[in-house]
Predict the structure.
Amino acid sequence: MQARLTGPASIHLKESYPMSENPKNTIPQCSSCGSENVLFDAYVAWDETTQTYEIVNVFDKGHYCQDCDGECSIDWEESD
Ligand SMILES: [Zn+2]
């Protein structure tokens, strides 16, 4: 399951993360409970041309697990 934002809140992935470092398909998981319901702490900027948010930077810390209901660390798991 993947949460999707619609309308002006839809985020255009300008730079895939962390795909640029790892060519395999990866899934972010909560390091505590293994849930994929995780949110990233990031800066986004408004792009006037595309009328979407562009991700400027995804931080290393401060991610949020919706299952733990709190801050978490991310483990990147390979998917097939
Ligand atoms: Zn969790």
Notes: The longest strand covers residues 52-58. Residues 7-78 form one domain.
